[in-house]
Amino acid sequence: MSLRSGILFCNKSDISDATQLQKNMLRNAVEDKVTSTITSPFLGRPPANVAYATQRGRMLFGKSDQLLADGSLSRFEGKVNLIFTSPPFPLNRKKRYGNETGDTYIRWLCAYGPLFKKMLAPDGSIVIEMGNSWEPGMPVMSTLALRALLEFQSLNNLHLCQEFIWQNPAKLPSPAQWVNVERIRVKDSFTRLWWMSPNRKPKANNQRVLHEYSKAMKDLLKKGSYNSGKRPSEHEISETAFLRDNGGAIPSNVLTFANTHSSDAYQIYCRENKIQPHPARMPSELAKFFIKFLTEPDDIVLDPFGGSNTTGATAEELDRFWISIEASDDYISGSRGRFGNRITYDMHSQ
Fold first, then answer.
1. Coil, strand, or helix at residue 1?
2. Percentages (nearest 5) of helix, strand, coil residues in the chain
3. Helix or strand (DSSP H, E) at 237
């Protein structure tokens, strides 16, 4: 691009870049637009088990297995587009957030399958995050988490659409005895997320979660040529294979997000109100990835183990409707800090 005698001259690559940018901006605007003709699924006064509400969501107080089974959410059956949740991890010892242990955990988790499936839309998805555990007193990993996921998927006739890994580079070294003291293991810094569905092709679009191109890719697109030919893998790469600007790079199934927020609205609210924060919060970036990938604006997202309600707050930010369920009044109290003045109903003020 150049300026000569007050006239702006553009080469073909400049026009192409601008055109693609305009297309991307238009697509994103359409994707993110809240459709005014959509009727809210939350009509009338919130029922007694609603702890608080916003224009787009409800936090329910109670045990999720009971609320999903007793008809409290019957109006949403067959309408939920994504169940995104992080149940209490299958640790081999009890934690204060109420996890089951051992084979009891597997039976407990599997019992949620029919309850989840009846809530899903025909093209809906289930994403479950599951952490690792170690055998008590031994530098040996437990297979309990893997067995729990496999049993849940198999017994409930779900398709494993894809496995994801969330890697937290800021996670503290653990287990401390084997990593810090004896130095015979490295730190355990990832969790699994299994994306499952009764449908082989549930709603999904990776164009909604594209990453910015690397500098090398941007340079390649500008240059307009590529080192084509046969690769050692025996793949044949054509001359134009990587010269199309698709608006960004397709992400991998290994997601890296640090979980180091110490001064966000949630933490500040908990400190100011002397509330103990939830001990196992996920970063909002993780929830955002799956909500954008697997849903569209005005879809419904359900989190049966709401905790600090990262899922609900992220869904609200992305113009989705949301339902969260949490059995701990303390965790619900802290989660209010994620919404501020967006809360339109609060059982404590009634």
1. coil
2. 35, 20, 45
3. strand 236-237
Q: What is the 3-state secondary structure (H, E, C) of 153-186?
A: HHHCCCEEEEEEEEECCCCCCCCHHHHHHCCCCC
Give the integer Cα–Cα distance in Å for 141 and 70: 38
The CA-based angle 196-328-98, given to 5 degrees, is 65
pTM for the structure as a whole: 0.83
Q: Which residues of 74-108 are buried (b: 16+ CB within 10 A; e: fewer)?
A: eebeebbbbbbbbbbbbbeeeeeeebbbeeebbeb
d(CA 139, CA 1): 61
What domains are defined for the chain? Answer: 21-210+250-349 (3.40.50.150), 212-249 (no CATH)
φ/ψ (deg, to 5) at 224: 80, 20
The span from the CA of 146 to the CA of 247, in Å, is: 36
pLDDT per residue as tens digits for the range 258-299 = 887 777 888 888 988 888 888 788 899 999 999 999 999 999
The pLDDT tens digits for 204-259 are 999 999 999 888 778 777 776 666 666 677 666 665 656 677 788 999 999 999 88
